[in-house]
Amino acid sequence: MKKWIAWLCSLLLLLPLAACGNGNGQGEKPLKNVRLAEVTHSIFYAPQYVALAKGFFKEEGLDVELTTTWGGDKTMTTLLSGGADIALVGSETSIYVYAQGTDDPVINFAQLTQTDGTFLVSRKKIDHFTWEMLKGSTFLGQRKGGMPQMVGEFVLKQHGIDPHNDLHLIQNVDFANIANAFASGTGDFVQLFEPTASIFEQEGKGYIVASFGTESGRVPYTSYMAKQSYIKANKDVIEKFTRAIYKAQQWVASHSASDIAKAIQPYFKDTDLALIEKVVDRYKSQGTYATDPILDEEEWNHLQTIMDEAGELPKRIDLETLVDSSFAKQAMNE
């Protein structure tokens, strides 16, 4: 949380310089450029790549320019400073920004994933895993203040484990280096995203024993958001963007993991097709991919409960303050 406060305070000083964004996009047939910043590049976001690969954005008259900004703080900085029109990032970031005070809050308008995307990986193969086995172990967790870490601690507590007293919790390793740290011998257990978790299994470096997504329940893990001022000035863009995402969500829901893997492979050229299919199947089977873009109140409240238990919730914020589901509902009604 301190990290978020530091960069937000410095960023707010710069915002007046970047207040002016895109035009109103009232052109007729030429594609409207939309700059999209994603927090990371992952099979976890398969419906987004389906929307790109299947031309759903272009069908709506949008030319989506995708950039990976690597991290919640960097993604939000890019959005707030005018470097992106829309961001795909954890909904908790909109809460952090709002809590610091702003007259142009970031609004969540479409949800993409509805569960955590990490898995618990053990260094040793365990035939009959129980969460009790983590007690006394060294657990290599995710960065403090991020959703993976908060969900990880929430799940441990749900299973009667105090993450700060019942095990040795390591949280000072950068996200990009967590997998390498585990591979080099750090930790008995590690919290990993796909496809790294499955790659470790293939190479005998670790074994998936549990899913944090399954254990933590539905939560708005990653959503599309934009500044309130951008949404007001570009309602047509948000409508079209949300419609394209909904088409992709429905396509993913109605197609096999094999079909989805083939569709998104161009966005993961260095990943084996069979591995992409395996990861998609794992996420699809546990309901990770939202089937519609609506972020509902139950999910929003659950998110804040997870943040609160992790000691990272600045204050409770009503759904209506930072979530606008009108575009999602319109897309579904059409």
UniProtKB/TrEMBL annotation:
<dbReference type="InterPro" id="IPR015168">
    <property type="entry name" value="SsuA/THI5"/>
</dbReference>
<feature type="signal peptide">
    <location>
        <begin position="1"/>
        <end position="21"/>
    </location>
</feature>
<dbReference type="Pfam" id="PF09084">
    <property type="entry name" value="NMT1"/>
</dbReference>
<keyword id="KW-0732">Signal</keyword>
<comment type="similarity">
    <text>Belongs to the bacterial solute-binding protein SsuA/TauA family.</text>
</comment>
<protein>
    <recommendedName>
        <fullName>SsuA/THI5-like domain-containing protein</fullName>
    </recommendedName>
</protein>
<feature type="domain" description="SsuA/THI5-like">
    <location>
        <begin position="46"/>
        <end position="255"/>
    </location>
</feature>
